[in-house]
Amino acid sequence: MMDFGRFMYEQSKKVHAMKQNQRSGQVKEVKFRPHINEHDLSTKINYVQRFLEEGNRAKINLMFRGREMIHTEVGAGIMQKIIASIDPRGIVEVPPRMEGSSMTMVLAPNPAYKPSEKGGDREESNKKSQNQEQGTENPK
């Protein structure tokens, strides 16, 4: 026989511990327009990549106005560029779809992707180039 009160207490402790271990993250939204320059597009894609690396989900909102609604294929092309550029960092959680006058999709961080330390690769390549100049290579 077991004390029911103690059992309920242990169950609530387990549920509380499981909730603490979960990391939900926030949904960050980035707004685009159909006629966007390449540099502006790459800047906004960098923001999306940073959000995904931080563990947050990213909502992409592509807004159409007036006559732009006729050319939704331009928006679909932009969405495909975004998907291609975030490929290792994120996955498409909700595929692109039209909602009124805007096209939206949601990207989630890829759990299999592990970002490397910033500058770590650069330091190793600098050491290798210095060793090659001196004629010595550091064996690993």
UniProtKB/TrEMBL annotation:
SUPFAM superfamilies: Translation initiation factor IF3, C-terminal domain (SSF55200). Residues 128-140 have a biased composition (Polar residues). This is Translation initiation factor IF-3. InterPro entries: T_IF-3_C_sf, Translation_initiation_fac_3, Translation_initiation_fac_3_C. It comes from Leptospirillum ferrooxidans (strain C2-3). Residues 102-140 are annotated as: Disordered. Keywords: Initiation factor, Protein biosynthesis. One of its GO terms (cellular component) is membrane. Residues 115-127 have a biased composition (Basic and acidic residues). One of its GO terms (biological process) is ribosome disassembly. GO terms for molecular function: ribosome binding; translation initiation factor activity. Belongs to the IF-3 family. It holds the Pfam family IF3_C. Residues 26-110 form the Translation initiation factor 3 C-terminal domain.
